[in-house]
Amino acid sequence: MLKNISYPRKPILIKCLAIITCLVYCYFETLYHQDFDIFILATKDFLQGGNIYKNTYDNGFHFFYGAIFSVILSPFTLLPIHVARFIWICLNILALLRTWKLINFYLDKSKLASKQILWFNAICIIFSAKLVLDNFHNGQVTIFLLLLILEGLKLIEQKKKIKGASLIALGISVKLLPLILIPYLFFIKEFKAIAVIIVFFFLFLLLPGVFVGFDHNILLLSEWWHLINPTNVEQVIDTAEPALNGLTSFIPTLLIENVPDNAAFSIKRNITDLDVKSVSLIINTLRLILVLMTLFFLRRFPFKKATSKLNSFWELSYILLLIPMIFPHQQHYAFLLGLPACVYCVNWLMMQRTHINKVQFNLRITLLVLIYICFNLHLILGQFREYYDHFKLISYGSVLLVILLAICKPVQVHLYSKDVMK
What we know:
By secondary structure, this protein is mainly alpha-helical. The protein contains 21 helices and no strands. It has helices at 2-29, 35-47, 67-73, 81-106, 114-138, 142-157, 161-174, 181-187, 191-206, 209-212, 214-228, 233-236, 247-255, 276-292, 294-298, 309-326, 339-352, 358-380, 385-390, 393-407, 410-421. α6 packs antiparallel against α7 and α7 packs across α9 (191-206). The longest helix has 28 residues, at 2-29. The chain is globular and about 65 Å long.
């Protein structure tokens, strides 16, 4: 009888320990300077009528987010910075837990035993550890963006189009990255959702005018666009900060000998030396190729929905991975948007480990290990992180992830599952 009574308490104890651990972790993170501090400084400036896109904060850093983000953060300005940091990190953890639940909504675990599911969860946690910790440590917004995208798309799929589209519109108005979803929604015939996104996007652009005046808000919108305009030279040859990755940072280091990077080592990393105009053309061509590759993942005619949740997750994983690759000025933490792609590939390998030949399986495992190293070497062997940033290791990892995602087609999962059923 005593044994029977003790079992229900065990999960409660584990949850309590997990909560205490998270709270202790959040406390220690509040002791360090974060990007969140820049957000708060910009928000205070915004509320006082300052030009938050022309002014810089904390030793010269710009505020790149929509003014609606300052409106959202305005209550945090009333708190001591350590308390504000603590709450922000706790909210990040809650957002991550909800995001993980949304990701699991799409996955196929029908052939996995309970112990295998534990292994799956452990591998995914280990795989994403560095990217998640970077977002916590920097007090960033990437987890919230991923949550808004996944939650919004799920609500749209459940016919709650206004709720879902408004969440996606909020994400776009904070940071333009989710704009890439508009063509995808058009492809799957979600015209009403697109219309709602457009309406709410403009509402979120205008809303800050209630706080600072509409004339000043129009000025801020103009300055924001001037700052983030992708045609700016600094957005094309985007190498001023060592931790930047993606095409606009990775390609110039390969094709230009002396890129603007004060922290660069003398170790050679370029394979040729081209002019800026040629490099810009190559970057935009590669962007176009990556965007067109979306058709490979969609694999159906326009205006038709995916045949399964897993197919939908496969194509969405690629679209999310595209965001930090093709948009300029992407720090390492932005590659958390590749988390769904990583989780999908781990799930695929666990489901198909007995259904493909050893050579094919080992090839995919090798790619997965290389991707893990590229994304997590900062965590494994952090004393050489300057070298990893110098060679844009995360960019290599994202390219390998595109390849792995492309060769792990969900149609094979269905075929093998039918074979097993027979």
